[in-house]
Amino acid sequence: MSGSYGEELLRAALAGTDPNASPVTHTEVIPAAQARYGQWPRWLDPAIVAAYAELGLHRPWQHQVVAAEHAFAGRHVVIATGTASGKSLAYQLPVLQTLLSDHGTTALYLAPTKALGADQLRSLSTILAANPDFARLAPCTYDGDTDAQLRQWARANSRIVFTNPDMCHIGILSGHHRWQQFLRQLRFIVVDECHHYRGVFGAHTALVLRRLLRVARAAGADPVVVAASATTADPARTLSRLIGEPANEVTDDASPTGERTVALWEPDFLPEVTGENGAPVRRSAGAEAGRILADFVIEGARTLCFVRSRRGAEITARTAAGLLGSAAPELAGRVAAYRAGYLADDRRRLERAIADGELLGVATTNALELGVDISGLDAVIIAGYPGTVASFWQQAGRAGRRSAASAVVLIARDDPLDTYLVHHPEALLRKPVEATVFDPTNPYVLKPHLLCAAAELPLKPDEVDRLGVAEAVNELTDEGLLRRRKAGWYPAVGLEPHADIDIRGGIGGQILIVDTSTSRLLGTVDTGRALSSVHPGAVHIHQGASYVVDDLDLGDGLALVHPEEPDWTTSPRETTEIAVVTVVRKAEHGQLHVALVEVTVTSQVVGYLRKLPGGEIVDSVELDLPPQTLPTRAVQFTLTPESLAAAGISDANLPGALHAAEHAMIGMLPLVATCDRWDIGGLSTNLHADTGLPTIYVYDGYPGGAGFADRGFEAFAEWVAATHEAVSSCGCEKGCPSCVQSPKCGNGNEPLDKAGAVTILDVIGRAADVSGRN
Ligand SMILES: Nc1ncnc2c1ncn2[C@@H]1O[C@H](COP(=O)(O)OP(=O)(O)OP(=O)(O)O)[C@@H](O)[C@H]1O
């Protein structure tokens, strides 16, 4: 192991650090894998085989053939294999064969981002260029950037259209009569990177896909869905939930990979810097990444460094270039930043520079995680756990040529989940990847889509029964939004439901964020989140640039901002109350009761804290804003006062202990559900009116819920065990951002009792039958 290439690189990065206080918590060598080849399918035209051969692609890997066979035989299939395992070829084979042999057929390709759609179009165009006869497929992009003329041309002439769920909803489905010819001939729907469809975005996309299948079938087609995904648990179930029909999966990856050394890295605490309530603060993952990037570049390693934010990517690249400027000036110009938001030409130029080695080090946001065909690098640095195990592997997979060794370094941020993972490599490296969580039955998402479906084609009674949506349809009818006629349900006259849905915008209305210095629209934020994210005085980051909010007008749906780069960031202070509406499911474990409940969360932003980048507090500012309510789903857990007293928790310690346990549970839910801690919220109280007991709630931050609380309820034992482990093993004394402090606490992280939280989590863990781990 000591001789591996990755270990050599690591040694270079560790040179000069105290060997007794190494930041590396774990290293592991993942051995190389040999290619397993299959045969080109018998149904495949030799001209297609010849086109691939011209690109240097002579034999398919086994998983590519298995997936292609499913799709060609008319079975929905998802191929869930590693990064750069050739998933594109797997969907291209059946699509190309069908479209080239039958002139009356079309295909639709959907990607979660425009950039990926454009990349896939380019990749297909290279194959088509190999044979003049293939040009008749006329592939074309159809997204927000496509002009009206080209849109019309695409509808009439293109046999394979590259789009995204947003445009499919607003451009294709809302005007499906204009797309009749294309839809009637639709044989394949390709859903690329389908693990990205999670949370509310996932629920919206699921309903768009179901509507697409519905109108295609009504037009006389019967399309097959071919999906590609990063490795996730249960991919067939995920695809099946996305499209509402059974699906097959292909998961046995037969592509070759070189040896890969994975290192987990925990930055040290910064001496003499303290954060909220005097807590110790670790060196930031971005700063550490910049240093390691410089070391790797000096070693001649072509390195990609993933950083969570656009601004972070710029800073990391600058840090590395600065360090190189003094250590190896000739290399300083060979490091750059890459992020979404750059112009297409700049992106292409950077991609080429990375591919041909002109650039040695690139700091990037996850813009380079998705699909873009850059692989074969010597090293990948990941500054902060990217949120899901699937994303981790996707990013890590950019390292490693087919036959050469490579290194991957994950640097923990100051956060309980990151800290837990670098100390529990098995949870990251050997755990089955999490399943994608989303909930297409959430009535707040479902009902607007039912209105769209009814506007597209009247909803038939048998269809309503088959889809199990009778309750939602009846409610819409009672609300006067749907009208029952002989042929089925129609939307009320004058209703234009498509425009009301923003596939990525969450649920409910949107607030527009406008820069008053230029009158430019910067973006939007959900009404439900506006008070906590764009309240007056809030620092708002947009594409790396910083703005300060002057005014928030909920009535007009406007947040007015001006450009300003203050030294601090802001975090809202909030009060929250929860009322239980119904208990959906419950589990009793002696003194511990766990329930999945429907709740109404009432919250009010009462002020905000201004914090320096290191975590130090500048001051706290009061605000006078109205309360807001959120109907959603929550996991509720209660303990009896007797069980807490028996565990030694006094009444005085209880609020801090519950509050700290709640924070840690929120921080760790992403381990079992594919969410971000910003997607969820929590409340703890030593006496809750609805339970009469000390209670903790962890709730979904979206109306109707996004499926995260449901998942937390299902995986409760695993979730609480990991949380207990994370808090009890954290090296700090009284609580820090790596365990019980929360970056989004509405109470300024007061009160928090770390030791009490460990006790409570232990009591809960034992009761939930996961004791004996410590
Ligand atoms: N059978 C094969 N033999 C050799 N090279 C192949 C084969 N199939 C695909 N490739 C090459 O592997 C690279 C990665 O392929 P592709 O981009 O389709 O992978 P992917 O699984 O879609 O990647 P991502 O995880 O980024 O979505 C491409 O350069 C492609 O040409």
From TrEMBL:
GO MF term list: helicase activity
Domain Helicase ATP-binding span(s) in chain numbering: 68-250
InterPro entries: DEAD/DEAH_box_helicase_dom (IPR011545), Helicase_ATP-bd (IPR014001), Helicase_C-like (IPR001650), Helicase_put_actinobac (IPR022307), HRQ1_WHD (IPR055227), MZB (IPR018973), P-loop_NTPase (IPR027417)
Pfam family, one: MZB
Entry keywords, A to Z: ATP-binding, Helicase, Hydrolase, Nucleotide-binding
Chain segments annotated as coiled-coil in the UniProt record: none
Superkingdom to which the source organism belongs: Bacteria
SUPFAM superfamilies reported for this sequence: P-loop containing nucleoside triphosphate hydrolases (SSF52540)
Residue span(s) of domain Helicase C-terminal: 292-444
Gene3D superfamilies (UniProt xref): P-loop containing nucleotide triphosphate hydrolases (3.40.50.300)
Protein name: DEAD/DEAH box helicase
